[in-house]
Design goal:
With about 220 residues, this protein is an alpha/beta fold. The chain is about 35% helix and about 25% strand. The protein has a single domain (about 10-215), classed as Rossmann fold (3-Layer(aba) Sandwich). The protein has six helices and seven strands. The model has no long low-confidence stretch (mean pLDDT about 90).
């Protein structure tokens, strides 16, 4: 993982500008998201918290296709633009889907054991190693017994072409992290330790960009 990470203010400024263009990343994100959807058992979820809701595209799909009718959703994001986009997208489910602007600290505005799914995709790769550890501690706090940690993150290349792409990506990140949205590859499993039981881990590479999907309890 690269040493240089965007500050909270830098990340907020970038994603406020980036806005709906984030959906263009679906070309490499969607294959990994499909893996996550197959293993996260959202069909039996009751309360889902998503850290980094982005444009709300994934949340809308979950509410439309996966969640049972009683399931609630709380989306959190540091970007006001992303919060506004998500609120608009989730308007059909406004009675059970809420979106909240945060300051970017690892602390979550969620009570202990209040949810049974903690979801975060392409967010932890924006954070420092210390922030990742604190975020996972918070995830453990807010998950009820039997709840699932559901993550997807940029990771390191697995083949020669993807290793080359990864090397180029990390070089750009080291020079100007804003050019890659502040994201840098990491290995999620290295942060789970003995606190989590990994139920499924898979790396999916598309166009040389690799994503690690991890489901743990």
């Amino acid at each position: 993982m690269a040493d240089r990470v965007l500050s909270h203010e830098e990340a907020k400024a970038f994603y406020d500008r980036f806005g709906r263009k984030q959906d263009l990343q679906r070309i490499y994100e969607d294959p990994a998201i499909e893996v996550l959807l197959r293993h996260a058992a959202f069909e039996s979820a009751s309360a889902v918290v998503e850290l980094g809701c982005g444009t709300g595209r994934l949340a809308a799909r979950l509410l439309r296709e996966r969640f049972p009718s009683h399931a609630t959703y709380l989306g959190l994001d540091i970007s006001r633009t992303m919060v506004e986009l998500t609120r608009a997208r989730l308007e059909p489910w406004a009675d059970r889907a809420k979106v909240q602007l945060t300051e970017g600290s690892p602390g979550l505005p969620v009570a202990d054991r209040a949810c049974d799914r903690f979801l975060s995709t392409y967010v932890l790769d924006l954070l420092s190693e210390e922030e990742i550890r604190l975020t996972l501690l918070e995830a453990r706090r807010v998950l009820a017994p039997g709840g699932l940690l559901c993550l997807a993150s940029l990771t390191f290349g697995q083949t020669l072409p993807s290793r080359l792409v990864c090397r180029i990506w990390t070089t750009v990140h080291s020079l100007r992290p804003q050019l890659v949205g502040g994201c840098s590859p990491l290995r999620l499993e290295a942060f789970t330790g003995s606190d989590w039981r990994v139920l499924h881990r898979e790396v999916r590479c598309t166009f040389g960009i690799c994503t690690e999907v991890l489901i743990a309890s």
